[in-house]
Structure prediction request, 351 residues.
Amino acid sequence: MTSILIHSADYFDGQLLFANSWALLTDDSAELAQGDGWRQKTADRTIDAQGKTLISGLVDTHCHGAMGHAAQDGLAGMRATLDFNFENGVAKSLLSLVSAPAKELIDLCEQAQELKSDERFAGIHLEGPYISHGKRGAHNPEMVGKPTTDDLRALAKQETAKSITIAPELFQTSQIDILADAGLQLCFGHSEATYEQALAFFKRYPTAIMTHAFNGMHGIHHRAPGPIPAAIESGVMIELIADGIHVDDAAARLLPEDKLILVTDAMAATGMPDGEYKLGSMTAHVRDGVARTDSGSLAGSTLRLKDAVANYASWVENKEKALSAASTNPAKIFGITAPKLSLANHFLLDC
Prediction:
């Protein structure tokens, strides 16, 4: 029987942070406590985790790829992304697809059926293609546009599709209802919606999520407040890419901490050196770890979720809030069962 003893760690149980904690993990058990009781324990391996945080795993609900691979590439790319995420503390991942023809997205969703037995896979996030041309960011302009009811019905039938980012101003209400009634998690993003339009959307769909706040939407203006105040007032959950590039920390602190979901929006260059990488059908140029298209638009990120946690924790001076935003909050809204601390699911974060 394999055993690991981890001591002198901060332990996060999904709600609270416990200082000076220890855990004795074996193949079939997990013993947890605070204090120096670990000194009376023995294990095959002992880890002094002073200065680190012990968790059972983070949850990333918006991730396109890593290590030169992308979910858009198919099953092999999906598996490679799950591997990288797990190695970096992410126990559950929603794999994101950028805008593409509905037929291609359906094919990728069907390929993802092979991952149903992989406990790390939480589903597919469709980021587009029904988004605004004016706020499309790194999405191919030839791939975005208004939805058709037939395509929506076909996408809504995909068992692995769990969420979809849309620009609601492009839709009839009955079309959005097709997605909502099928159980797809609605996400607002890459939209030119006004404050009033966004508020109406959030009031009708109060469980919606705002996709990567501040990016792919109108910013805040004192005479045209835009969608961000609408999301805050409505109390919906709000994604944040906490890399210090997509959003300044001062702007990030405007978002309610309890309504936050930290995501990476990571693309194929994550974990790789600078160079050229694909994001869907677009080329992204990565310099100093920042991915941009030829037009200069940010093209996802090279962020790891554990680094997003550390960044946000320093911005708001609250590690519990940061950990919740990268685990408990997304797990709750997506109905994901968070893993229990175990020999297979234990991670130490440098924060």
The longest helix spans residues 75-87. The domain at 3-54 is CATH 2.30.40.10 (Urease, subunit C; domain 1).
